[in-house]
Amino acid sequence: EDQVTQSPEALRLQEGESSSLNCSYTVSGLRGLFWYRQDPGKGPEFLFTLYSAGEEKEKERLKATLTKKESFLHITAPKPEDSATYLCAVPPDLGGYNKLIFGAGTRLAVHP
Amino acid sequence: DTAVSQTPKYLVTQMGNDKSIKCEQNLGHDTMYWYKQDSKKFLKIMFSYNNKELIINETVPNRFSPKSPDKAHLNLHINSLELGDSAVYFCASSSSKGSMTGELFFGEGSRLTVL
Q1: Which of B104, B105, B108 to probe the A interface (max A CBs under 10 A)?
Q2: Do residues A33 and A66 lie in contact, with contact meaning Cβ atoms separated by under 8 Å?
Q3: What would the pLDDT profile of A88-98 be if each residue is shown by its tens digit?
Q4: Does A98 touch chain B (CB under 8 A)?
Q5: Nearest CB to B102; choose among A42, A49, A95
């Protein structure tokens, strides 16, 4: 069964303390990996799409990278407003892009 | 203007009742979805519609019946509610391009609690 695993489950950082979140997947033919941010009580908000190993995307303090079996979301000098749950998702091996498989997310808390 | 709006935001009901959740998107997208987020926070696809046509129906009990009266609206009706139906239900939409780039636009969710 296709799976997406995210680690750690929760991460607490001090403001300015850089770190990385991990997303690993078991689909054999990756057709894209997608990162989302979810604030409490809100729906997920799209951040990035990565398609091939070595690809990188950046947005403000966030940088997403992709290898053959996992993706990292690097957070540089985070601020309290970066606190959220970060989700990654992939389309399954069988089936279209319309049925994404999501990981359980990493809950990030950034303290001043 | 909210891009994807769902109502109601909260539902609390008794087992055995029937309830509906409504969703509307004003983004002009062709594809709409229902996702369920359970207590472990996994988001799982339930249904997807493209231009009012059902294209994904993921082993969901037939107590759940989606309806898309037009491509801007997708509703979810749930019959004979069970305790295990308690979850947050998210509506989402995407353009044809967005479906391939993984760019879905989600509503704020409807938290269903079955007592």
Answers
A1: B104
A2: yes
A3: 999 888 767 77
A4: yes
A5: A49
Which burial class, exposed, middle or buried, applies to A79 when counting CB atoms under 10 A from its CB (0-12, 13-18, 19+)?
A: middle
The alpha carbons of chain B give a radius of gyration, in whole angstroms, of: 13
| C-beta of residue B31 within 8 angstroms of C-beta of residue B45 | no
Contacts of B43 (CB under 8 A, 6+ apart): A44, A87, A89, A100, A102, B35, B36, B37, B90
Rounded distance between C-alpha atoms, residue A101 and residue A37, angstroms: 15
Per-residue pLDDT of B65-96, as tens digits, reads 999 999 999 999 999 999 999 999 999 999 98
Q: Are A108 and A85 in contact (CB under 8 A)?
A: yes
A102: distance to nearest CA of chain B, Å?
6
